Amino acid sequence: DAMVIQNPRYQVTQFGKPVTLSCSQTLNHNVMYWYQQKSSQAPKLLFHYYDKDFNNEADTPDNFQSRRPNTSFCFLDIRSPGLGDAAMYLCATRPVGGHSMNTEAFFGQGTRLTVV
Amino acid sequence: DQQVKQNSPSLSVQEGRISILNCDYTNSMFDYFLWYKKYPAEGPTFLISISSIKDKNEDGRFTVFLNKSAKHLSLHIVPSQPGDSAVYFCAASPGGTSYGKLTFGQGTILTVHP
Predict the structure, then answer these.
(1) What are B23's strand-pairing partners?
(2) CA–CA separation, B30 vs B4, rounded Å?
(3) Which residues of A touch B9 (CB under 8 A)?
(4) Is-contact B21 B74, C-beta < 8 A?
(5) B99 and A55 in contact by Cβ < 8 A?
(6) pLDDT(A62) > 80
(7) Cα separations (Å) of A77 from A54, A62, B60?
(8) What are the residues of chain A with a beta carbon less than 8 Å away from any beta carbon of chain B?
């Protein structure tokens, strides 16, 4: 059973047209992450939520926003996609805090974004 | 500033032999290390991890070794199987109030030949 689900798996969007990627989880984990991965590169953390607290990485462009309306769902909004934003976007969850500091993160299958 | 590095982009191994994937890190605050396996068009799946208080962790065919003084870890797969062919990512997480952020290496493409 899929525990972290990303929709859609493949997304084609026009240059400059806002796009939203979604992620849902059934694990009830308090932390959710969004990573961007370009070909042959390391996944790069864009931002994460610790419960409702939003934490942006210093080098994440303003073009990228996120929403977490509840524990289960998290969205990645790209306000004006450029050609350089074409990538695989990975959502992950992790239980963090208390006795759960050393645990693995669970990833969704990713959304491959193409910008035309 | 790449804090986690996998210097070998690819590795080719014969079925049945040992695969050794290497990873180096620079941030001494990292205290938990993980290996993930990734197939094309899929998300990474967790393989094995190790805490900084250990130097070895074993799970079936997979063993991870940690050398803290050298800031180096390695993943050993014995025996290697064709189904192990994938991209392997090393990741590291600092302790404290970092909310478990994982920093990844660039990955190593492992090909296991029948």
Answers:
(1) B73
(2) 10
(3) 40
(4) yes
(5) yes
(6) yes
(7) 14, 10, 41
(8) 4, 6, 9, 31, 33, 35, 40-45, 48, 50, 55, 90, 92, 94, 96, 101-110, 112
- Please write the tens of the pLDDT for every residue from A64-94: 999 999 999 999 999 999 999 999 999 999 9
Question: Which amino acid is located at A78 in the chain?
Answer: I
- Alpha carbons B93 and A71: distance in angstroms, whole number: 22
Residue A62 to chain B, least CA–CA distance (Å): 20
Question: What torsion do the CA atoms of B38, B44, B50, B52 make, to the nearest 10 degrees?
Answer: 110
Mean pLDDT value across chain A: 92
Q: For residue B45, count CB atoms less than 10 angstroms from its CB and return exposed for 0-12, middle for 13-18, buried for 19 or more.
A: middle
**Chain B residues lying within 8 Å of A4, measured CB to CB:** 43
Please name the residue of chain A whose CA is at the shortest distance from the CA of residue B104: A42
For CA atoms A103, A109, A111, A112, the dihedral sign is: positive
CA distances from A29 to A26, B12, B47 (A): 8, 37, 19
| Confidence class for position A95, pLDDT limits 50, 70, 90 | confident
8 A C-beta contact, residue A7 and residue A84: no
| Closest CB from A40, A101, A109 relative to B43 | A109
Please check whether residue B72 is in contact with residue B22, taking contact to mean a CB–CB distance below 8 angstroms.
Answer: yes
CA B56 distance to own-chain centroid = 13
Closest chain B residue by Cα to residue A4: B43
The structure tokens listed for B76 are 């050993």
Whole-angstrom distance between the N-terminal and C-terminal Cα of chain B?
A: 38
